[in-house]
Every structure is written in C-alpha cells, then in structure tokens.
Amino acid sequence: MRLLLLGATGRTGEHLLDLGLARGHHLTAFVRSPQKIARRERALTVVKGDPLQADQLAGALAGHDAVLSALGPSPRQAFRPSTMLSECAASTVAAMTTAGVERLAVVSAALLFPEKGLRFVLFRWLLEHHVRDLDAMEAVVRASRCDFTIARPPRLVDARDEGYRSARDALPAGADAMSFRAVAAFLLDCVEQRTHVREIVGLARGRDT
Ligand SMILES: NC(=O)c1ccc[n+]([C@@H]2O[C@H](COP(=O)([O-])OP(=O)(O)OC[C@H]3O[C@@H](n4cnc5c(N)ncnc54)[C@H](OP(=O)(O)O)[C@@H]3O)[C@@H](O)[C@H]2O)c1
Predict the structure, then answer these.
(1) What CATH number is given to the structural domain containing 112?
(2) What is the pLDDT of residues 83-106, one digit of tens each?
C-alpha cells in the first residue's frame, strides 16, 4: 500500500516507518524536519511540509491509500494550551477529501476513557491541555467522512514487542504500559486488514487471541 505518515520523526512514528517498510509498503513521511530521518530506501519518500497546511498535505497525498498519524506535542507544548492536534486533524481530513483518500488511522490516548484510577486522574489533571486538544482532535476526526480508526493506547515505552490487545470503546483489562512499536503495528494492521473502521479502540500490551 501507499501510506502517508504524519509524525514520522516521533517515537511512535519511527516504528511506523520501520514496520511499514518491513511489511513492504511505500511510505511518504510528511515532516517539518526531513533531516531527522536518516533512512534512505527506495520505498521511502520524505516530503518537507507543515501538517497544518491542508494544501501542502493534499499535494503530497495524491495516489495514497491511507494516512497514519502519530503526531504529538513536544513535552513543553503538552503542558500549555494548544490546538496543534485538532488543527492538524482538520487540515488532514480536508486534504484527504481533496485528494480522494478515505482511510485514516490516528493515535490518541487512553486518558480519554473515563477510567477513575489514581494514575488516570493524576495524568488527566497534569496533561489537561493536551487531553483537551486530543479530545478536540477526535471530535474533528469523528465528524469527518473518513474511514477512521482512533487508537487510544495507555502509557508508551520503548520496547521491541509488537503484540497488543484491543477493545472497541474501552481500555482492555489490566492495561498499564505498552510499546510505541505495538501501537504502530496496530495502526498498520487496521489499514492493511480494513478493521476497526469508524471505531475508537483501546489498546494494551499483550496479544488478541
Ligand atoms: N508517549 C506516550 O506515552 C503516549 C501515551 C499515550 C498516547 N500517546 C499519544 O501518541 C501520540 C504520539 O506520541 P509520541 O510520544 O510518539 O510523539 P513524539 O515522539 O513526541 O512525536 C511527536 C511527533 O509530532 C510532530 N510534531 C509535533 N509538533 C508538531 C507541529 N507543530 N507541526 C508538525 N509536526 C509536529 C513531531 O515532529 P518534530 O520531530 O518535527 O518535532 C514528531 O514527529 C501523541 O499524540 C500522544 O498523545 C502518547
């Protein structure tokens, strides 16, 4: 498949790149800092652009099968009011409409589930601005005509495991932390297998049986 990646220079994004290439896809990494991507492969095109600009995105999107987005705020941005994710979502769905691309898989966060555990309450409070932008981002995606999948993982860690458990509209039981790589694997599985279309999916470490 021809896949356009947003956030390819990030921690989830680097695994989208790695797994996407390993699975034989043709990838376009649409990034603001191309110099951050050292990989040189025939199946990888790096395009410099601003995901807030729908016209730039639409130009890069022509001929692609899907968009996979792992955009996220920098640590500094995360603690301040921001509309980066919701504005990027708006420009992405507008660009997809222009380019005739229907499939979108995007990373959100488990903090949007109404979990009441202490850790959830604490991080929802600490990251209130980020959570607000994620919520607005999801609203933009849900209101669009895209065939979207919104992934809500818990805390993410560096590890090589690719397995995950998934649940529609809920956090799988016992979800604590999982790997950036497993989130990337989930997004790729969804677009390859056309699963979880127009669904919000909670993720956890492990393996669906
Ligand atoms: N990390 C976690 O523990 C965790 C847990 C649950 C959910 N999530 C969600 O997963 C998503 C991805 O997280 P991550 O940790 O993989 O992200 P990350 O490593 O911080 O990477 C963020 C990506 O977004 C890009 N970006 C940031 N601001 C941008 C802007 N203004 N314009 C264009 N690109 C911009 C960055 O590009 P540059 O390289 O150019 O800065 C980078 O590619 C986040 O939305 C987060 O809510 C994360």
Answers:
(1) 3.40.50.720
(2) 999 999 999 999 999 999 999 999
Domain of residue 106: give its range: 2-205
Q: Is 48 in the pocket of ligand 1 (CB under 6 A)?
A: no
What is the model's pTM? 0.98
Query: How confident is the model over 148-203, as pLDDT tens digits?
Result: 999 999 999 999 999 999 999 999 998 889 999 999 999 999 999 999 999 999 99
Please list, in sequence order, all residues whose beta carbon lies within 8 angstroms of the beta carbon of residue 125, skipping any fewer than 6 positions away: none
Q: Which atom of ligand 1 is nearest to the CA of 180?
A: 16
Residue 36 CB less than 6 A away from ligand 1: yes
Question: Distance from the CA of 8 to the center of ligand 1, in angstroms?
Answer: 9
The tally of domains found in the chain comes to 1
Tell me, using a 6 A CB cutoff, whether residue 156 lines ligand 1: yes
Give the torsion through C-alpha atoms of 45, 85, 11, 70, to 10 deg.
-60
